[in-house]
Amino acid sequence: MSKDWDQGTKAVHAGSKRSQYGEVSEAIFMTQGFVYDTAEAAEARFESAGPDEFIYARYGNPTVAMFEERIAALEGAEDAFATASGMAAVNGAMMSVLKAGDHVVSARALFGSCLYIAEEILPRFGVEVTFVDGSDLSAWETAIRPDTRAVFFESLSNPALELVDIEAVAKLAHGQDALVICDNVFATPVYSHAIAQGVDLVIYSATKHIDGQGRALGGVILGSRELIRKTIEPYMKHTGGSMSPFTAWIMLKGLETMRLRVREQTATAAYLASALEDHPQLSRVIYPGSPSHPQHALAMAQMGAGGTMLAIEVKGGKEGAYKFLNACKIGLISNNLGDAKTILTPPAFTTHQRLPQEQKDALGITPGLVRISVGLEDADDLLADFTQALLD
Questions:
Q1: Fold of 258-391
Q2: What does the mean pLDDT of the chain come to?
Q3: Pick from 55, 114, 128, 226: CA 20 to 30 A from residue 340's CA?
């Protein structure tokens, strides 16, 4: 692979390894184990496996390795470890680098399961977690201290689309020798510059835009080769969070079209946000690509685009939101995102329902909020559908 290749070329060709048959589409190596010619060869493999030598699918697999190499090339990372789900990636990244007595600073605006890890799991193992307003740089500066081992945040928060200034927070964290761990799923690998902006470990739920077609669960952790192979890999391979070969093949196929899909979805999201911004049935439209977003300049500097997600607040609270959701004919009510199909979610009562009301209020998760993951449908069809649903 040439380092000079553009992202689109890397998405199709990076990491490809062909068998003796010279197949065009990547092969699926559906095996949990591997055979050695001799006992001596088995011993040597366990002592020091080469880059194309494998031991057990929980440790590595040729199809999985192709996915890891390709997504690392796209992200600009040295290496990657593919996981069974996005949450396996979040848990693996956190648990592998932390120990009892460590301190973590985390943005308070997190997806429900991420928040569970930070609030419930890490403290059980003696890790202290301090939560801050992720958009407030002074809050990060105050909370990060000499014993801080890591900072954690979503670069674009779920569901209120609040940004964290990656470069600024990374500079503060690295000033105290803390690792920067970023859940980058809303930014997508298409608009990500997280490694260049100072992130040490980038996490994706590959279930979302990477697959992008509602087929499989998957995740990936990206970073330096030393962090991935000496810290992440030992933890993941011994605790069983590895990606399956068939899932890796699905993700490889997803990467081939991801840039085309995400760019089209982003264009539609921007169109919808603009068209709906002054709708009388909406209290607000949240889209980082809109000049009205309070962090629009940061979004453009950090991502270069608004992304595929927007949120609307329907007047009338829960009743108004549910009326809109039930009247939509194209958008599907579900809790996934980053799909080819437009997906609508009322986060206050689904993905973030376990949060106390005061926490929902602080994060802007109101009863009328609807998160919209924009799909590949015609933009005018979606606008017409939303318009009739708001007036129904």
A1: Aspartate Aminotransferase, domain 1 (3.90.1150)
A2: 96
A3: 114
